[in-house]
Amino acid sequence: MFEDKKYPALMQSALARLPASMDKREGSMLWDGVAPAMAELALLYLGLDFVLQATYISTAPRKYLIKRAAERGLSPKPASAAHFRAEFDADVPIGACFSCEDLNFVVTARTVEGWQLVCEMPGSLANSCSGRLIPIDYIAGLTKAELVELLIPGDDEEETEVFRQRVLASLQAQAFGGNQADYRAQVMAIPGVGGVKVRPVWNGGIRPAEFIPNAAVQSWYAANIDSLPAEVTSWLQAVYTAAKDKWLTVGGAVKLVLLAADNTAPTSELIDRVQEVIDPEQNAGEGLGLAPVGHVVQVVGVQAEPVDLELHLTYAPGWDWAAAQSYILAVLDAYFAELAASWPDNEFLTVRISQIESRILSGCAAMVADIGGTKINGQEANLQLGADCIPKRGDVVG
What we know:
Blueprint: H1 7-16, H2 29-55, H3 62-70, E1 83-88, E2 97-100, E3 103-110, E4 115-119, E5 131-132, E6 134-135, E7 145-152, H4 160-172, H5 180-188, E8 193-200, H6 215-224, H7 230-244, E9 253-260, H8 268-278, E10 296-301, E11 303-310, E12 313-315, H9 321-341, E13 350-351, H10 353-363, E14 368-371, E15 375-376, E16 383-384, E17 389-397
């Protein structure tokens, strides 16, 4: 906005206000008298330009973007720590510390499946860790210690531009009272979650009128209710009464489909954590979680659909499938990860042959001279995945 308020322009404007008969050449008394003031004024205009940029959400630097977002109750997602399952061949106490790949891990719980550990350093760096654990303190009888499964992926602090888009999106869709924007905002604030789709009234194919028992059902109920086991009788009486009195509805049924922070299908531990925070199953619909009273929420994860590929490659001299395989698979994994990351913003994902071939040619140009006739799941056609599916590399034949 102040591009024309630079030092040379300010000097020219100031000197132009003086009579032409005066000596205004550089080095003259007038020039030397005006120059310091114009230099300071130029700096002032630079500051005004920064203030103007920092005022708007679309242009504010991170520090001031956070201040503007705070006015809407938003803040950047902090870095979260990765949670793992580990196996030990000795009794390991809670709080014991181990190291793996220059990172430290702390034992937090013991379950039927094994021990749970959390990385001391928040962020995504630990997500790829696996294998042998080294105890920091001596543990009697311990000869085996391994990280075996990533339960909840760690996530880095939210990047500035990602946060900016989230703030701008909040202006377009006001989060309030359990609407879709509210669910997205609440779920995305939970550590380990990388994306979510909200399916409101997801069982809406069932008409509430179909719940009401007709004459035949009422006759059967009256004749058989007393002959059923006590637990069955109690459950059936509750359902029958609610249906007969027209208490059952589908309006408050919500399904949340999750994507993990590392753009993979979430583990059952992450799903259970989100379920507990949003709407605990033992108190479904009672409003003891973040979901409003009356909303019965089901939390599920995206499905990783294997994608088998048949590649017809022409190799550069000195290369073959055995030598180039790891590079090509890395390119494919990067493409599938990029697709998975875009899942929250797309109804369906499509694995495209053109993308596969162009990415292999550009990413492996030194080893692949040409490619054509690529097949996805045995077909020379693009593959559209289900609404709640992300791609996962299956068998790849080169």
